[in-house]
Amino acid sequence: MAHVELRGPMLGARWLLLLLVLTSSLGPARPEPRVPCYFIFEDSLVDNGNNNNNASLAVANYPPYGVDFAGGPTGRFTNGLTTVDVIPKLLGFHGFIPPYARTRGQALLAGVNFASAAAGIQEETGRQLGGRIPLSGQLQNYRSAVQEMVRILGGEETAATYLSKCIFSVGMGSNDYLNNYFMPALYGTSRQYTPEQYADVLTQQYSQQLRTLYNSGARKVALIGVGQVGCSPSELAQRSPDGVSCVEEINSAIGVFNAKLIGVVDELNALDGAHFIYINGYGIFEDIMRNSAAYGASVTNRGCCGVGRNNGQITCLPYQAPCAYRNEYLFFDAFHPTEAAIVLIAKRSYSARSPSDAYPMDIRRLAKV
């Protein structure tokens, strides 16, 4: 491109006028998000495409998934938005947090979704479903992203300051129960550990993984508790005596694990500059289920789409039309909530409706720390 030297007050005035015209035509500037970036580590509840190219049964990049999403099927395991689509919007982000599988360079600075369907705290969790990225692999991908951000931002100190202002959302553990502990034919953990012992094993490993995240720059971390897996249509169909009552054996084990996460939060908040919080996903979903009629959800024990079994995985059958009134269903498939339920969960995670929703604060307050 040729070098053009601009001189003279008239030319400067013309450029100023042009700039004013262009600025006015673009409308008012949009406000900046409350935090500069948002990073996500989880499983199929928020995977938005990282598993699409894996040799895996845990994929959702086909209809009817995404039937209510503007981009159609993307890898999201629901009909529309996930919680990590809704929460960034509440934080003021203007677009969706992209999957790490197709994000590099400058785009990393706004945050990345590292979530992978079937992923767990334990390496072997979900192995019967094929390719997936366990939490350890997600952390490895994050460290690679940090190295790139250090290069972009011009140094480790600058990158550390930048990352300290971001929010990190971490929600692991459901597959360690659903696709590990409660699959005795494939995994030996339920024979090796009592629910109390297994919760100890998980939280000890989880705590170390979260320290790794802290050592790589994370300071504001929202730890998402495991939901009521024992109330999912899949577990109701397989284990419930009447097809309606939640499976207490599963929910009780998850309750033990979630209770220990409070201690993990307290432990990690002793680290310099750390602000870890716990979002009570179990309690929030329990309240939504108990008061489902008030929320307009009349169907709580089955999914909105047709489901099929593929080596133990129950997902929507490809290209089958889902139910017409999706807002009336809590679940879209045999495991994952509908967008209607997800929006309720996300809003309460962001701004707690009751003191039990978040500890010691909600995501809205975390953003202000």
Automatic annotation (TrEMBL):
Its main location: secreted. One of its GO terms (molecular function) is hydrolase activity, acting on ester bonds. Keywords: Hydrolase, Lipid degradation, Lipid metabolism, Secreted, Signal. CDD domains: SGNH_plant_lipase_like. Residues 1-31 form the signal peptide. One of its GO terms (biological process) is lipid catabolic process. It holds the Pfam family Lipase_GDSL. It comes from the Eukaryota. Gene3D superfamilies: SGNH hydrolase (3.40.50.1110). Belongs to the 'GDSL' lipolytic enzyme family. This is (wild Malaysian banana) hypothetical protein. It comes from Musa acuminata subsp. malaccensis (Wild banana). The lineage of its organism: Eukaryota, Viridiplantae, Streptophyta, Embryophyta, Tracheophyta.
